[in-house]
Structure formats: structure tokens, C-alpha cells
């Protein structure tokens, strides 16, 4: 896809910048006291400039992300979210939200609605409790991955299940390729050994494939790569997809670009990614369609 077409798609994604965000952040509550906070307190305007673009790549340095620190919630936004708005950071193809969240002990997001969005949570540390209007009550922790297809509408809440330590997790929103579907929830526990110095698929479009599945032609992979080790990632759909790489920990080089902890790097019009760890590295690769339909 040409650069001009990509920027057009980014602009189209801009109308979705506030999609469900106000509702998502409407109630931040203590799980015991149920103390509500004003939605206006969640996030703030922080237009960033530390971004590098070429014809087929975009680099988002960790320090360039939007920031929202409210004591109970410390969040970094790779793309525009809530009161953080940057017209150059609306989405990467159908990847709409990548939030790096830290929630204080016993705190969390009260019940709020979503619709027509695929929402993926990847816990990095601690325990995250989920409840929803389908009757689901579950806890996810490091090594798990959770998916919720909001479809025609769902209510849910998320809390730190612990009273004595933080919970850290990535929350990712992907625009679906089908709207109005029946809401659903799923979570699985992954074998962390299966990603040591190799790619572990954690999400795909196929219910019978490895990992969880979503209503989109997307594939997510994770790896724990030791210093000096290399991998090659082949895209599943080179004609339509790009890859957004997010460095959870470490220092890595992808197709000649050096990346550090919490950097994001998007590539499109490529067939493969050549990955080399410059230190012990935890890496998330998100292959997604670049066209928003």
C-alpha cells in the first residue's frame, strides 16, 4: 500500500478516536468503597513529536506516547485515547488502541459499555479481575491472554484483584471485520516455554488455530528472545497486512531499526521481519490489515 493511501486510512480512523473511550473510562472505582472519579480526570492532552516516518515504516519511541497518571492509574497510550489526541497517532491500520496500564492495588474500571470492537488484554504482572454482562467472572495473570468481542454490545468491569500490589497489563483494541456479532469472552493460559527463542502465536482469525481468535484477519505473536538470538517472521497476508512491533522488555533490532523497551515500530509493504535481540528481549508482534473497511 502506498504512503498516501495509508495516511488516508489513518485519517479515516480519526473518527474512531473517541469510540467508546469516554464510556471505557467513565467510572474508576475502588473495588471495596466503589468511589467514582470524574471521567474528565482520565487522560490529558499531550501532543507528542518524537515520531519518525519513512515510506513504509513508523517509529514510536516509548517517551513519545500519551501519558495519563491519576495515582490509581498510570497509563501510556501508543495511539490517541481519551484526552490524549495526536492526529498523527490515530491507529495503525485496524489496530486502534495499545495502552500500557498500571493499576494500583484494589482499584480499577467500573462497569462500562463497549460495542463493535475486539478487545485483547495481556497481563504482564499481577492479577486482573474481569466481570461482564454475560455472567463471566474471571481473573487473568502473566502467561494468560484474554479476548472480548464486544459485538452488538457488552458491559464489563476490570479491577486489580490484589489489595497489596499493582497489576500491569496491555490493553489492545482491534477494529473488527464484522459488526453486530454476538458478544463473547475467552481466555487461555499459554506455555511461556513455547516462546523462548521462537515465536509463539497467541491470536489469529481462526478458532481452531493456536491462541485466542478475533473477528479480524490479524495474527499476534510473542517471543522471549535471548541476547544474540535471531528470528524471522513471515507475514501471513503480505498483500493486505502490516506489523506493529512492541518491545515489552529489552533491546532489539527489526529490519535494521534498533528498538528499546516500550518502543513501537510499524512496518507495511514487507514480506518478513528480521529480528535480532541485542539484550534479553520480550517482544509482541501484531500483524493487522492496513485498510479500514
Description:
A hairpin with a 4-residue loop joins strand 9 (127-132) and strand 10. The protein has two helices and 24 strands. Mean pLDDT is 86; it is low at 1-49. The protein is mainly beta. It has a single domain, classed as Jelly Rolls, CATH 2.60.120. The strands form four sheets. An eight-stranded mixed β-sheet has the order 2-3-22-19-24-17-15-16, with no helix packed on it. It has a seven-stranded antiparallel β-sheet with strand order 4-5-6-13-8-11-14, with no helix packed on it. The protein has helices at 3-13, 21-24; strands at 28-30, 51-53, 57-60, 66-69, 73-77, 95-103, 107-114, 118-125, 127-132, 137-141, 144-149, 154-160, 167-174, 184-189, 200-204, 212-213, 219-225, 230-234, 241-249, 252-254, 257-259, 264-267, 272-277, 281-289.
Total domain count: 1
Q: What's the CATH architecture?
A: Sandwich
Radius of gyration, in Å, reads: 18 Å
- Sketch the topology as an H/E string, one letter per element: HHEEEEEEEEEEEEEEEEEEEEEEEE
Give the helix tally: 2
Calculate the mean pLDDT score and round it: 86
Overall strand count: 24
Structural class: mainly beta
CATH topology annotation: Jelly Rolls
Poorly predicted residue ranges = 1-49
What distance lies between the first and last C-alpha atoms, to the nearest angstrom? Answer: 15 Å
Assign an overall shape. globular
The CATH homology group name? Jelly Rolls
Tell me the major beta sheet.
8 strands, mixed
Q: What is the share of helical residues?
A: under 10%
